[in-house]
Specification:
The chain is α/β, with parallel strands linked by helices. It has one domain: Nitrile Hydratase, Chain A. The protein has ten helices and five strands. The strands form two sheets. It has a three-stranded mixed β-sheet with strand order 1-4-3, covered by helices on one side. It is globular.
């Protein structure tokens, strides 16, 4: 598939592509939401602990599980993988995952030669239908600026050191296009069901700041879901 326009190499030679359309309104919207949340908490209408639990559910559980199922299907079904590579939006929608912030999806596939990393340099564009809410670090100024300028250093911050021969490709999400990283399938997972494969797919692996979990020992219990 041809590369979208918002890719940057690991050396940061390309300046981040200017964002347009919805981006200029997102920071203001975020401030309004926070102000409304503060007001509701102060008046006793909302329990802040309940809000945190709700955010955690969508950030860590509901959303990433959707993306994990997409990845697992791509690992297990070569035809679906090809479809995902050609038309990620439609392929993902076929599994029931679609909606706002996921209207135009592009899937990028990690290989031993190339690792993909997703960022939104001006705000926090993120594929909600497959990954849920973005983690706080994804929205931070430090991640947004350093992911393009020093991607290997960012990966090291997450405990991920890639082989020297593996190139890093950075993808800059926009209001028009969101990206899903398909990590490499772990060794030793031949014969795994899609459910077992999905349990190895983490949220960070689908952003590019992590890898899929290794296959558990045969005697071990099923691994935990996306984190």
């Amino acid at each position: 598939m041809s590369a979208p326009h918002h890719a940057h190499d690991a050396h940061g030679a390309d300046a981040p592509h200017p964002h347009t359309h919805e981006h200029s309104h997102l920071d203001e919207m975020d401030l309004r939401v926070r102000a409304l949340e503060t007001l509701l908490v102060e008046k006793g209408y909302v329990d802040p602990a309940a809000i945190e639990r709700l955010i955690e559910t969508y950030e860590v559980q509901v959303g990433p599980h959707n993306g994990a199922r997409v990845v697992a299907r791509a690992w297990a079904d070569a035809d679906f993988r090809d479809w995902l590579a050609r038309d990620a939006t439609t392929a993902i929608s076929s599994l029931g995952y679609s909606g706002r912030q996921g209207e135009h999806m592009v899937a990028v596939f990690n290989t031993p030669q190339q690792h993909h990393l997703v960022v939104c340099t001006l705000c926090s564009c993120y594929p909600w239908p497959v990954l849920g809410l973005p983690p706080a670090w994804y929205k931070s100024a430090a991640y947004r600026s350093r992911a393009v300028a020093a991607p290997r250093a960012v990966l090291a911050d997450f405990g991920l050191t890639l082989p020297a021969g593996t190139a890093v490709q950075v993808w800059d999400s926009t209001a028009e296009v969101r990206y899903l990283v398909v990590p490499m399938r772990p060794a030793g997972t031949e014969g795994f069901s899609e459910e077992q494969l999905a349990a190895l797919v983490t949220r960070d692996a689908m952003i590019g700041t992590g890898l899929a979990l290794p296959a558990p020992p045969a005697s071990a219990s099923a691994p935990a879901g996306p984190t």
